[in-house]
Amino acid sequence: MKRIEAKWQAYWDTHQTFRVDLDDATASDDSRNHSEPASPQHANGAATGGPSRDARKKYVLDMFPYPSGAGLHVGHPEGYTATDIVSRYSRMRGVQVLHPMGWDAFGLPAEDYAIKTGTHPAVTTAKNIGTFKRQLKSLGFSYDWSREFATTDPEYYRWTQWIFLQLFDTWYDATCVWTGQDGVTRTGKGRPISELPIPHDVAANGVNAVRRYQDQHRLAYQHEAPVNWCPMLGTVLANEEIIDGKSDRGGHPVERVPLRQWLLRITAYGDRLASELDDLQWPDSIKLMQKNWIGRSEGAEVDFFVGEGQDSFKQWSSARKESGFSREPGAEGLRIYTTRPDTLFGVTYMVLAPEHAAVDRLTTAERRAAVDTYRQQAAMKSDLDRTDLAKGKSGVFTGGYATNPVNGEKVPVWIADYVLISYGTGAIMAVPAHDERDLEFATQFGIDVRHVVAPDGQPQSDAPGFFEHGVAINSGGYNGLSTLVFKTKITSDLEANGLGRKAVNYRLRDWLFSRQRYWGEPFPIWHELDSSGVPTGLMRTDPETSLPVLLPEMADFKPTGTPEPMLSKAPDSWLYSTASDGTRLKREANTMPQWAGSCWYYLRFADPKNNRQFIDPAIEKRWLPVDLYVGGAEHAVLHLLYSRFWHKVLFDRGHVSTVEPFRRLVNQGMILGEVEFTGYVVGDASAVAALTGGAGSSANSMNGSTDSTGPRWISVRELTDRVDAEGTAIRVVTKTGEVATAVTLVGDRVEKKGDAFVLKDQPGVVVDSRAHKMSKARGNVINPDVVVDQFGADSLRLYEMFMGPLEAVKPWGMKGVEGVARFLGRVWRMIVDEQSESGIRLSHTVQDCPATAEQLRVLHRTIKAVTRDIESLGFNTAISRMMEFVNDFLAMDARPKSVIEPFVLLLSPFAPHLAEELWQLLGHPSTLAYETWPNHDDAWLIESEFEIPVQLNGKLRGKVTVPADADRETIERAAKADPVIASQLEGKTIVKTIFVPGKMVNFVVK
RNA sequence: GGCCGAGUGGCGAAACAGGCAGACGCACAGGACUUAAAAUCCUGUGUCCCGAUAGGGACGUGCGGGUUCGAACCCCGCCUCGGCUACCA
Q: Where are the beta strands (DSSP E) in A294-452?
């Protein structure tokens, strides 16, 4: 088996079997003998593809891996086999297939390794890529390896930097209405910065003022903001890289420190990123996750008056009525954002985020100390502390008051960290009666609760809070309005009075795009320095022609230990330069995040060697978007959102012709470790050892024990999850609090009882039965190399597809691998004579004889089912169909070549090595990779008679066999004539007869 | 807490649009081949009941209701597990 696999892998390599030349669409090779046109499977591509997309092309893409030192994981081949089957199948349908592979190779692990050992990350990366490539090749995937690249290749990151320059050169015109290359008219466009209108007052201040103004509007911009600085990793992290207040990688603590950072204005594309999801063939759950992540909400901005005295409030109000809603709230205004402007009459206090700029102004002298203390504490708190709901809310009164613009009422202004500076305006109006969080806060601090909405408009409400929509009460002239009507009306009333306006907000934040590490793409940006070497804040870009900006060689990879980037330790020759006009320049020393390289790699695969453009527009038009994209759900939000963002910018700037990069997305389910049984023991260590030593006798000795404090097995049902002092998850006995020790049990010590598994010798003890995520710590990781070594690549491929549906989470089972390996053995013996002395040759049962009708029926049934299942990615059932075929044909002594050959073709996408070998033995000189996929003929599926179930009142009572062409009357008569049915019908009347052609007949009787 | 998904034999699963529940595989049991074992092949296998056998019956897709001639599938309520998210006003 191993010999066969190596042979064919070498063959495919030597013959470049899977190389595809994209600019030669009409390529015709002798082996590519197609007699029929490809099936037009993607007629629904109009939404994302242009009208002239070539139906005979298919771009099938895997999410490219990060080549970690650990090598391939069994999760990788799951998706890769699925796309390989689709690719091989599509080629046989006469479709030109682009199926590439490459490496997402920038990132922290290689750099961490460099810090520890001094090995250059490029060395580590190259070594890991070598391992991955060897492993992938050993699985026989039909990649076009001539297109391989890594994101770390200078010739690749040259174009990553080029795209960054596009982002830098673009501003978002939210009001621009335009028609793109896809023929769709939309509002909002990324436009060249040179087209940004410059206000007169800015222009009047000179060239540098204009430059600064432009810099503020670019899609790639610098901004000083609190960032998530992780001292352990020595880098700043994106919000998305922080889980529960700790770093996603390594779980290290994260601090908030202010720093000047690069951000990408992804929020400008929030609307389009949400709405343009609709036409994609993506799982609904992923679309929903992206929409939730973008988190668009509609509401209103409202200014509260924070000046002194009723008179000045009146002046302020009338001035506002005159001038309209201002761009900035001004010194006497406090701007809030709310989604419930209909509850304005229920406001009993206001809350500012601790970092809000107006806090100083509003704080009174006697509250100053308390406010300052609180602000300091809030600044220190990690995100985890801030969001710890269990601890309740915190906040302090500033001493200041704000006046409600709708009723002139003065309400106290607080600061509290449950209001986030980064969302909305960083200030809220609090309506405890109708907002859960405000209610919790108000209850805690004894603030009034005023009801202004009731379910039915009846003022008497005894509930503390009502958070749904309803009918307005206690709201002046608005009483009786339903929530939605009220919202619209008060928003326009506020607008008319210059006090508020409709507003949209997003949970999505701009994307923090700089990292302080070495192993990433350098920015093609220079900072201008003044005569004393201090940055002026003005920037210049590297010209496109000087890209790539290469990483400098460095000997020392130790982090700086401060938020200062690694590359600030680079040699001066790299770091400094002088412009032609004499200006001193310093290089941007941050690097791009790992996401950058993976944001556009799918484009480069179509034109990987192009040294004039990131992709040739003609090639882009023909091959994009990706037709099928398969990968893990862990990238559901970040990678896919970032890619879509970049793609849309490139689209707006005319560099790509489609608005979305990935037409169809499928998420493979995670493969878990083998199912494990876990029992729990209480008692000291020696007792645990005695119980679990495996000796049945010692366990039995505990059987009669009624001593509830001694060492003993304990049911999982009596345990509760806890967290111990060190923060580790433990399980304790619910009643006594004793800590239980987990013991992994072998399968034959347990049995099923009811709906749970119990110990065989102590049926009262329920044990856990679960498959866990594979992890080094648990020791349940399956290495694909071992599986390939033992069972062969075809077995691994087949097993991973046979386990269950591609999208499902499924536990590994080595016995299942044996099962599919046995199946492949049966296929082999169906065709090959193993007994032969003269080496391998065809079995004498495989003959050039005519096929019987029965054999043809089995074949065509199999062709039909396998084809349909591949189209719907139902690989598990496709394999079971082929197993049925083999079971049938092994029972036959004559196996016509005309039936066996199509079967080998059906099998080939799944088990290509075996199939190629069999194909050769059947007398074909070259690869089957471009043979025509078999077609089924329904004519062969017709049977002369069939069995139809007969029901009485919906319950199955018998079956009758009728001729295939029998009409309804004949079938009903036959059903009634059946002895069993007849006896049951006796003495009853048939009220109604349900007849489903080909399915069943049902008599409703009384 | 919120959102999404899933619960079917001892196990992984199948049932395509509401119409024969459990295809296919694993495991197990019995048998054949073998000195023996492995490999391979054959037979059986949801649970319970009646029956010597042939055969027949009842129950059965997490739980409780509902719609329907008919529900694993649709609706309502609940339970359990998994994923995502976590004060976004």
A: 297-305, 333-338, 349-352, 396-403, 410-415, 427-430
In the numeric block, which tokens belong to residue A532?
A: 């004393």
Give me the percent of chain A exceeding a pLDDT of 90.
55
Could you give the 3-state DSSP secondary structure of residue A817? Answer: helix
- Tell me the C-alpha distance between A780 and A668, whole Å: 20
Is A943-1005 a domain of CATH 3.10.20.590? yes
Say whether pLDDT at A412 is over 50.
yes
Q: Is residue A137 within a helix (H) or strand (E), and if so which, with residue range?
A: helix A121-137
pLDDT band with cut points at 50, 70 and 90 for residue A843 = confident
Window 149-178 of chain A: CB closer than 7 A to strand B:
none
For A662, which DSSP code?
B
Spatial distance between the Cα atoms of A3 and A909, rounded to a whole number of angstroms? 19
A1000 Cβ contact partners less than 8 Å away, ≥ 6 residues apart: A948, A949, A950, A951
Considering only CA atoms, which of A584, A577, A579, A554 is closest in space to residue A567? Answer: A554
Distance A249 CA to B81 C1' (A): 27
Report CA torsion sign: A816, A818, A824, A825.
Answer: negative
Predicted local distance difference test score (pLDDT) of residue A618: 92
Query: Alpha-carbon distance A651 to A657, whole Å?
Result: 6
Query: Which tens digit of pLDDT belongs to each residue from A897-946?
Result: 999 999 999 999 999 999 999 999 999 999 999 999 999 988 888 777 77
Q: In CATH terms, is domain A784-939 a member of 1.10.730.10?
A: yes
At A631-659, the pLDDT tens digits run: 988 888 889 999 999 999 999 999 999 99
Superfamily of segment(s) A52-169+275-296+516-521+591-668: HUPs (3.40.50.620)
Dihedral (Cα; A222, A227, A229, A234), 10-degree rounding: -20
Mean pLDDT of A296-303: 92
ipTM: 0.94
Backbone angles phi, psi at A178, to 5 degrees: -155, 165
A90 three-state secondary structure: helix
Per-residue pLDDT, averaged over A226-232, amounts to 77
Q: Residues 6 or more apart from A880 whose CB is under 8 A from it?
A: A802
**CA of A143, C1' of B78: distance in angstroms:** 50
Q: How far apart are CA A810 and CA A673, in angstroms?
A: 9
Domain ranges of chain A: 52-169+275-296+516-521+591-668, 297-505, 671-773, 784-939, 943-1005
Assign A208 to helix, strand or coil. Answer: helix
Alpha-carbon distances, residue A987 vs A800, A984, A990, A1006 (angstroms): 56, 8, 10, 9
CA of A633 to C1' of B24 (A): 28
CATH topology of domain A297-505: Isoleucyl-tRNA Synthetase; domain 2 (3.90.740)
A1006 touches strand B (CB under 7 A): no
| pLDDT in the model for residue A27 | 41
Q: Please give the protein residue whose CA is closest to the C1' of the nucleotide B2.
A: A292
Find tokens 């106290």 and name the residue: A412
